[in-house]
Design brief:
By secondary structure, the protein is of the alpha+beta class. The protein has helices at residues 8-13, 36-45, 50-63, 67-84, 87-103, 107-123, 127-143, 147-163, 167-183, 187-203, 207-223, 227-244, 247-263, 267-283, 287-303, 307-324, 327-370, 375-422, 425-434, 455-461, 464-484, 510-528, 567-577, 588-594, 624-637; strands at 440-452, 488-493, 496-501, 541-555, 561-565, 584-587, 598-608, 612-622. Strands 1, 2, 3, 4, 5, 6, 7 and 8 form an eight-stranded mixed beta sheet that branches. Helix 3 (50-63) packs antiparallel against helix 4. The relative contact order is 0.05.
């Protein structure tokens, strides 16, 4: 189990000082429990001056235990700071906002907020605040496993804090740098950082800092196989942190205790520590630790042969990882860092350019005074030099703009490709142009469902890795078949695959194409049974098809999903559940559209809610004598 910066969330919460007409201490998350409700009641009464209101907002944004409320008060604080046009207060507000977003595991927006804080510190020429912002930026990079950027910003932040003689925040940053080395398995450097920060925490009498040093050193001992030292250090750290009510690091350290007891083959104790970590993470909404605890429990249950529970916990682990680690967020983090670096470099270039111009003017004046007879020559030389500088600058600028445009176009194309993987092209275009997608009714659409027989019993016997790899193997080939027949994949739910024909562009041959695709899916599934692949499970498949009207649209505001609704969909699902393995079961509506091209066998009726008795048919094969005649008639109808 790998540490994800057990105490990173403390540093940025301990970095903000108010300036001007009042001052508040930068204590971050206090060791004493904040009386939040009285402060909120006082704030809602609105019976105080502007200065008191801003001070109260600062306390709520800095110390509120609820991340969502913490974010709310941070945004209100920033709004008030903008009204006062205070660079220093805006720095505090963006640091508070970044801390709240990081607690909510929204790392992209947290990084954006910290970069805004850094720009305010540069504008205010406040080296200490810039150091604190760099440490917080490094924390986010460390959490998201970007080790190179994490070390870079930790190093610059620590240099600035050391120059300002800020021992407490220097010790915090040093401990977090140790966490970054620990995550890269560089245990010697990690231990050096932990020991040095431990000396500083003892010097300033920081109890919570001492607790983190103990816990982190315990984790190093655990990775080095020194279980007795690891257990002693981590238990002492947990006891101290429980008194301080710091829940996130406790959850991390509990997983390490579970690892230690698992190594000793004490599985009951290992399960107890892992469950305790999961319970604590669920109680306080610690999303990343919910994922890590579920992964630990999945591994422990798998070792004991409890494959059903192992799968349940593994699914919970994967669900969180999928929601946090995605391509768009990682790309946006990189863009934010690039924007900040470019703006920083541009400021440096502007300063150097101004200095160069001043020097040139001074040289010109001195030469004019000392060498009057060379005025014309000097003026000509200076003019030529400036022209060359301007020409060179314009050339470099044009080259930079051209390169930037190419990068922007590539990223734009990448974003469009990702969107087209999620939504149909017409729907994606409507979403981009209008910002939303109107629901549409289609009068004739063919819907197909597939399902693997006895999938639940198979899932209990297979390892989570083999189960996921097998399902991906089948569904990837289904995607290829569906694309071949110009059909639209709607979604997958567990082992169920759903697709539709006749949308988003209405056609007349969707029922024929869907039936042909169903036969290819059956052939692929049967052919897979002949493979002797150790990582691919063999399944029998049921297929159900129905045709009729549906309503289609997009649901969600951040994670878009294209879906369809209506009785047609429900009946198609019933056709699948009442089919048998290796057969294609269709409803009456589909039968009427394909009967001229396919041999079908009537198999009886089924009671469907709100529909009464519906006829069902098995599709047996193509009527070769009439199929192509029928298809030519379909194309002529187009």
């Amino acid at each position: 189990m790998k540490l994800k910066a057990a105490r990173l969330f403390l540093t940025s919460l301990k970095t903000c000082l108010l300036a001007g007409f009042f001052c508040l201490s930068a204590l971050g998350i206090s060791q004493e429990k904040l009386e939040t409700h009285p402060l909120e009641i006082k704030y809602s009464n609105n019976n105080f001056s502007k200065e008191e209101k801003l001070a109260l907002l600062n306390e709520l944004a800095q110390n509120h235990p609820d991340p969502q409320k913490k974010l709310h008060y941070s945004i209100v604080f920033i709004k008030n700071a903008k009204a006062l046009d205070s660079i220093h207060l805006l720095f505090q507000g963006y640091m508070h906002k970044g801390a709240a977003l990081r607690l909510k595991s929204d790392f992209t927006q947290a990084l954006e907020s910290y970069f805004k804080a850094a720009r305010r510190a540069v504008k205010d020429n406040n080296q200490r605040n810039l150091g604190l912002a760099h440490i917080s930026i490094a924390d986010v990079y460390s959490i998201t496993s970007n080790h190179e950027n994490a070390v870079k910003y930790y190093t610059s932040g620590l240099d600035l804090l050391k120059q300002e003689n800020d021992l407490e925040n220097y010790a915090n940053g040093l401990l977090n740098l140790g966490d970054a080395y620990f995550n890269e398995k560089d245990y010697d450097r990690a231990m050096e950082c932990f020991m040095e920060s431990g000396l500083l925490f003892r010097k300033i009498n920081s109890l919570e800092g001492h607790a983190f040093v103990l816990g982190n050193m315990g984790m190093v001992y655990a990775e080095q196989g020194k279980d007795d030292l690891a257990e002693a250090n981590i238990n002492e750290a947990i006891n101290l942190l429980e008194d301080l009510q710091l829940h996130y690091p406790i959850s991390v350290y509990l997983i390490y205790m579970s690892d230690i007891y698992a190594a000793k083959s004490n599985r009951s104790a290992a399960l107890a520590y892992a469950n305790r970590s999961l319970k604590l993470a669920n109680k306080y909404g610690l999303k990343e630790q919910i994922s890590d605890a579920n992964l630990q429990l999945s591994l422990l249950y798998e070792q004991q042969g409890g494959y059903k529970k192992s799968l349940q916990h593994f699914k919970a682990h994967v669900a969180f990882k999928d929601s946090v680690a995605n391509i768009e967020k990682v790309q946006k983090m990189g863009d934010l860092r690039t924007a900040f670096e470019v703006s920083k470099k541009q400021t440096e270039v502007d300063l150097l350019t101004q200095q160069q111009k001043v020097q040139n003017i001074q040289v010109a004046l001195l030469n004019q005074q000392n060498k009057n007879r060379q005025h014309l020559a000097i003026a000509t030389i200076i003019a030529l030099f400036l022209i060359l500088m301007i020409a060179f600058g314009l050339y470099r600028r044009n080259k930079y703009i051209t390169k930037t445009k190419i990068i922007i176009e590539e990223e734009k194309q990448r974003s469009e490709n990702l969107l087209l993987n999620i939504l149909p092209e017409e729907t994606a275009y409507e979403l981009k142009t209008k910002g939303k997608v109107e629901a549409k009714r289609f009068n004739s659409v063919t819907v197909l469902f597939t399902d693997f027989k006895s999938f639940t019993s198979f899932s209990e016997k297979l390892t989570p890795e083999k189960l996921v790899k097998s399902v991906d193997y089948y569904f990837s080939e289904f995607d290829t078949i569906i694309e071949k027949y110009e059909l639209e994949k709607i979604k997958t739910v567990g082992d169920s695959y759903m697709c539709a024909g006749g949308l988003p562009f209405p056609t007349t041959d969707h029922a024929i194409k869907m039936t042909l695709a169903a036969f290819e899916i059956l052939q692929f599934t049967e052919a897979t049974k002949q493979l002797n692949h150790p990582d691919i499970a063999h399944f029998d498949i049921r297929i159900g098809i129905n045709t009729g009207p549906v309503v289609a649209g997009v649901v969600g505001t951040k994670k878009f999903a294209y879906d369809i609704w209506g009785d047609t969909v429900n009946v198609a699902s019933r056709m699948e559940s009442n089919s048998i393995p290796g057969k294609i079961n269709i409803a009456e509506n589909t039968y009427q559209l394909i009967k001229a091209a396919f041999d079908c066998e009537h198999r009886g009726e089924i009671e469907v809610k709100n529909k009464g008795q519906l006829h069902m048919y098995f599709v047996k094969g193509i009527k070769e004598k009439t199929f192509y005649t029928f298809m030519n008639g379909q194309k002529a109808g187009l």
